[in-house]
Amino acid sequence: MALLSRKGLLAIAAVIDVALHGKGRPVSAKALAVRHSLPARHLEPVLQALVREDIVMRDSARYLLTDSLYREWIARRTF
């Protein structure tokens, strides 16, 4: 039995990806999809949920973590 759903794991991966690859700048949904080898249509609902929960903010088709301290904390981690 899995502890997290596939969407849950994808949400965590998206947040970490935005923090690590964005470095304070928005990351495109297309770039996220390419890095995770997914069609954008699978990633969009996850990103929309993260926007609704105020974890990431959306600017056009680009995403950025909302909290600068959280963004900095993730960027300093090595995974």
Secondary-structure blueprint:
Layout (H helix, E strand, L loop, with lengths): L5 H17 L4 E2 H7 L4 H13 L3 E4 L2 E4 L2 H9 L3
Antiparallel strand pairs: 1-3, 2-3
Helix pairs in contact: 1-3, 1-4, 2-3
Describe the structure.
It is a single chain. Helix 1 crosses helix 3 (40-52) and helix 1 crosses helix 4. The protein has a three-stranded antiparallel beta sheet with strand order 1-3-2. The mean pLDDT is 85. The protein has 79 residues and is α+β, with helices and mostly antiparallel strands. It contains four helices and three strands; from the N terminus they run H-E-H-H-E-E-H. It has helices at 6-22, 29-35, 40-52, 68-76, and strands at 27-28, 56-59, 62-65. Helices cover 58% and strands 13% of the residues. The protein is globular.
What's the gist of this structure?
The chain has 79 residues and is an alpha+beta fold. The chain is 58% helix and 13% strand.
Key attributes of the depicted protein:
79 residues; alpha+beta; 3-stranded antiparallel β-sheet; 4 helices; 3 strands; 58% helix
Distance between the termini: 25 Å
Taken as a percent bin, the fraction of beta residues is 5-15%
What is the overall shape?
Answer: globular
- Mean residue pLDDT: 85
- Share of helical residues: 55-70%
- Strands across the major sheet, in which order? 1-3-2
Give the uncertain stretches in residue-range form. Answer: none
Number of helices: 4
Rg is 12 Å
**How many β strands by DSSP?**
3
N-to-C series of helices and strands: HEHHEEH
